[in-house]
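Hey, I'm writing a tutorial for new members on how sequence and structure tokens pair up, and I'd like a real worked example in the thread rather than a made-up one. If someone can provide the structure for the chain below, I'll link this post from the tutorial.
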Amino acid sequence: MTDTTDRPDISDRAAQLAARFPALHAPQYWTWGRYDAQFSTAMPPDELITNIHLVGFADGLVVLCRDDRDHWFLPGGTRESGESIESCLVRELAEEAGARLLGEPSWLGAHRCVTDNPEPYRPWQPHPEKAWLWGWAEVSVDSAPTNPDDGEQVVEVRAMEPAEARRLLVRGHEEWWGELIGLAVELRGRSSTG
């Protein structure tokens, strides 16, 4: 992880983002995996990253997927053994959204997670600590999701206004999901003007 204490510009920026997006930066407990999770804009070490998810923008609209349980989510998922971050992202976009990257992703940050589960989720994953990486990128939705048998069964992919994406994500999750979309929109706006 990058140490920001010697670089006031980075630590000030991180503090400002934490103040603007408090739910995203608050300590969390994810009951489904028994994870204590904490978001940070600092990149975790590659070897800790087990999951990659993307706020994909298609012509300025946010791409969401809906599965057969009527659950809306951002495309992304679990890295396979030996898989690079980029390969995982490309595969997950195709599987869940029928989408492809139009440029390099920009990383928003990651949730560092620690579990008290006795076994890792997958045998090759780090344990008990791991990280979920979040990013944004321009994408094109130009095919149907491939829906592999061992993944979510996506029944709808929709590009929508960011406010609608926030509403749908928060409906089934905690408030921090909406703030994650807000952070992606803000940083995307900064990159197009900077």
